[in-house]
Specification:
homodimer; 210 residues; mainly alpha; Tetracycline Repressor, domain 2; 71% helix; globular; disordered N terminus; DNA-binding
DNA sequence: AACCGTACTGAAACTTGTTCTAGATTAGCG
DNA sequence: CGCTAATCTAGAACAAGTTTCAGTACGGTT
């Protein structure tokens, strides 16, 4: 539960198993990526610097992550898994599903506020990704969906309407982050947007409370 | 109304007035940008090619648009103004405000489907833009907001709740476009997302019909 | 019409993501 | 242990966005 190394491998279903050295390299690279991103954001993650900081040749870096966007999306996968684990430990306290999701997303948002540059790098990479990164972006999307569904605290499987609502919430979440990161929306504004969109959930799931 | 040269200047509130030659240069640049974007999308808009196609030196191009993202966001402003004018001519037919907005956005979506590469270039630039492009991105946002508010067909001024709903709709609109452009969502999926989020409007504006 | 400051041109240079190559290491295997 | 294929390294090379600079053309002023 507290060890994240076990969960980390689960995100990469394909490819041959890596040796210990290779796993260590991969981890060093992701660490360097997050480190550099934590400073200057997207632009500060320069492939040569990542390679040097993780003690790996440039060509090797590109063997592990075929582009800067791939690298940053993988970094986001990594961070999201940490976040998911953290959020699980303290489930939301609100009774209504919509409020629970809003509460959870606001917690995530506060976590991002502590590392705005890292958030910048990851979110920009995510929305800038083209088709060649689709599988990885999809993994991130599934992780996000899982976090939201977790927060809803459903009894059974979600209905199609609920899944649509969750998709829209995800859209709003990403786009609101972008506007905040580029300085066009305040923290308060993002909060309002999240709370607004979360009303959709209570609209589709009219509280089947006992 | 039909001449766009008059409307084009309205989007740039700052800066000294341009001479006729300068206005013509600006227009040639935007045309070349849209042309190239219409082919290969974001990557196909190469600054050297834009400069050559618009018969302008590279340095001059950068004087008019300080970065590729600035250029593409300006291109989006331009296209949005066309779109706004086109949409005004045929207002939505649905009675409910939410359905009117959904109908309008689906029209816009169909227009984008005709030029998917152009859409790719513009939307990617928009979400990739950093703080240095905030004013221009904000202009695009205001244009989009205007289109949505137009579609709602309000009698008076929108309430704060309605403005929040519109913001969330914009978030969903941009993010849904991204997922479609990167091949992670189908056209049908985008339609559902738009219709889902547009319910928020009828939630905040409970049909003050007569 | 001569003059001055600003804008434009053409071309080179610089930056950073990405690719390529030749040689050194490593991992797995008989 | 010795062999072989795959991986890794160091570094050059390439591509496209961006900057810079010396010289030229333009627009307004006197």
């Amino acid at each position: 539960m507290t060890t994240d190394s076990t969960a980390a491998g689960a995100a990469l279903p394909a490819g041959p198993p890596l040796t210990a050295r290779q796993e260590a390299r991969r981890r060093r690279i992701l660490h360097a990526s997050a480190e550099l991103a934590g400073r200057g954001g997207f632009d500060a993650v320069q492939m040569r610097e990542v390679a040097e900081a993780s003690d790996v040749a440039l060509g090797t870096l590109y063997r592990y992550f075929p582009s800067k966007v791939h690298l940053l999306v993988a970094t986001m996968q990594d961070q999201l898994q940490h976040l998911h684990a953290t959020l699980r430990k303290r489930p939301p306290t609100e009774p209504e599903p919509g409020a629970r999701v809003a509460q959870t997303l606001m917690r995530a948002f506060r976590a991002l506020q502590r590392e705005p540059h890292l958030a910048d790098a990851m979110v920009r990479a995510l929305t800038f990704a083209d088709r060649s990164v689709s599988p990885e972006v999809d993994t991130v999307s599934r992780l996000t969906t899982a976090i939201i569904l977790d927060a809803m605290g459903l009894d059974g499987a979600p209905t199609p309407e609920q899944l649509s609502a969750v998709r829209v919430i995800e859209h709003t979440w990403h786009s609101a982050l972008i506007t905040w990161l580029s300085g066009r929306a305040s923290i308060a504004q993002v909060k309002i947007d999240i709370e607004t969109v979360c009303r959709l959930i209570d609209l589709t799931a009219p509280v089947p409370r006992a």
